[in-house]
Amino acid sequence: MHIETLTPADPAWQAQALCAQTGADFFFPEPGSSVREAKRICGMCEMRSACLEYALANDERFGVWGGLSEKERQNLRRVTP
User: Residue 58, annotated ligand binder?
Assistant: First the structure.
């Protein structure tokens, strides 16, 4: 039995992510809008960790990635060497 591991370098995870089936509006809201719905969807997504790794590796500055907002990812970068 062969189990394939998806990594951030492998964009195949994106097609399996729940956000790909939902639409970008939740994940890239207008400034000041709530990201609650995006985080709820991320919380159910099996690709969440790959998504977050991708966002951190590619310095994504906008939107919700891996269940974290821009500010939360920025704070994570500060505490992670």
Answer: no
